[in-house]
Design brief:
Blueprint (H helix, E strand, L loop, with lengths): L1 H4 L5 E2 L12 H13 L11 H8 L11 E6 L4 E6 L2 H17 L7 H24 L14 H23 L5 H11 L1 H7 L1 H6 L3 E2 L7 E2 H16 L3 H4 L2 H11 L12 H14 E2 L2 E2 L4
Helix pairs in contact: 4-5, 4-6, 5-6, 7-10
């Protein structure tokens, strides 16, 4: 079936064991074997291969609640076959979230952050499968009887914890740029979930005759960097000499009237803005 739905007849089975520790490979292989044996061949969508092929080009379908996942890799034009152990992933992410909830994000290692991203990506694809299937069918790749409806509730609980952890830490002014940059670079799926509007803005392209084409997301990131520098009173990162030298040219202001950076008056105004915009060290909705 995988060969039939592959647009270019290229199959990559390496992801099945790519992230598995050597001592756990035997157990993973046994789970994959059981998943294959439990696949309901009689209900496989043999007559819908064209539709499944089109679906592959858009997302990550999981085959009949087996945990087996097919993903189209646009770079290699292959179908990557992987295995999502939802039960194990949930246990790992719940344990990891306990640590995230008790520490600041900056105290977490990059390995733990990327692990959270990978686990969240895997369970999100499974939740999407449950949604598309209407929560029907048995969890054949699970040990024990948890139903898809109960599994969906558990997945929702994990999502709520992730949303709470990251939103509570993103809105810390003195760390806002560092936190968002970490998510952009290492946790794109978590960022898409926690701040979908910011993710969508990153897809938009700003096109002005006087400026180089860039995404709105890039502009927002620069604004966040300046805002964090303002809060930390970091003049070096706050000022932008390129802007100061370009602005008078575009606005016909004599060069002698321009300074090379923020002056004392502007810093006093900035401090007033900071005091009015924050409350208890966090962004306040009312100035």
């Amino acid at each position: 079936m995988t060969v039939q739905v592959s647009p270019h007849r290229i199959i990559n089975f390496n992801p099945l064991l790519a992230a598995v520790a050597p001592e756990k490979k035997a157990l993973r292989l046994e789970k994959i074997r059981q998943a294959l044996e439990n696949l309901p061949v009689e209900t496989m969508p043999w007559k819908e291969l064209d539709d499944l092929r089109k679906t592959l080009l858009k997302g990550n379908p999981i085959l009949h609640n087996s945990g087996l996942r097919l993903t189209y890799n646009a770079a290699t034009k292959s179908i990557d076959v992987s295995y999502v152990d939802v039960q194990e992933n949930l246990e790992l992410i719940e344990k990891l979230l306990t640590k995230f909830e008790s520490c600041n994000l900056k105290e977490m290692s990059l390995q733990e952050v990327t692990q959270l991203e990978q686990l969240f990506s895997d369970i999100s694809s499974y939740k999407q499968y449950l949604y598309e299937e209407g929560g029907s069918g048995a969890d054949v790749h699970q040990e024990g009887p948890p139903s898809p409806s109960l599994m969906g509730l558990r997945l929702s609980s994990v999502e709520n914890r992730i949303r709470h952890v990251f939103l509570s830490q993103i809105l810390v002014p003195k760390e806002i740029f560092d936190t968002v940059r970490l998510l952009v670079e290492h946790c794109p799926n978590v960022l898409r979930f926690v701040m979908p509007d910011l993710h969508r803005l990153g897809q938009l392209i700003e096109n002005r005759p006087s400026r180089k084409r860039q995404s709105v997301g890039s502009y927002i990131m620069r604004c966040l960097e300046k805002f964090q520098a303002l809060i930390l009173k970091d003049r070096e990162n706050f000022q932008d000499l390129t802007i100061y030298y370009q602005w008078p040219r575009t606005n016909s202001v004599p060069w002698r009237r321009m300074t090379s950076g923020p002056n004392i008056t502007s810093w006093k105004s900035s401090n007033t803005f900071w005091n009015a915009s924050t409350r208890n060290g966090r962004l306040s909705p009312k100035p």
